[in-house]
Specification:
By secondary structure, the protein is mostly beta strands. It contains one helix and seven strands; from the N terminus they run βββββββα. Strands 1-2-3-4-5-6-7 form a seven-stranded antiparallel beta sheet, with helices on one face. The longest helix is centred in the C-terminal third of the chain and has 14 residues. It is globular. The N terminus is likely disordered.
């Protein structure tokens, strides 16, 4: 996991995670590897950006609640998406990100 300065300046902090989906036991119609970048702004709002080869880019607005990532809004390629339209692998990557942010492996 690497930390880096915000791209657009300001007070946001970011963390980057590389996630091997097979190691995390995320199977089915999913890529082999995903990259997640989490930004935290001054209001403690999380923006989780998930990228994977040959897949759409996903952006999740979220917050940490009781050690879990609570997703409040979902975007795909910048467009708002209904919760029911989110692929299972994106949800599971978000869960892994939440576990890592909470201090898990």
């Amino acid at each position: 996991m690497a930390s880096k300065q915000p791209v657009h300046g300001g007070s946001a902090q970011t963390k980057e995670f590389g996630i091997d989906l097979s190691i995390e036991r995320i199977r089915g119609r999913s890529p082999n590897h995903a990259r997640a970048v989490v930004s935290v702004d001054a209001n403690s709002t999380l923006r989780v950006e998930i990228e994977a080869a040959n897949e759409y880019d996903w952006q999740l607005d979220a917050r940490m609640v009781n050690g879990s990532l609570d997703i409040t809004r979902i975007f795909c390629e910048g467009d708002s998406v209904h919760d029911a339209d989110v692929p299972d692998w994106v949800r599971r990557v978000a869960k892994v990100v939440g576990e890592r942010l909470d201090g898990g492996t």
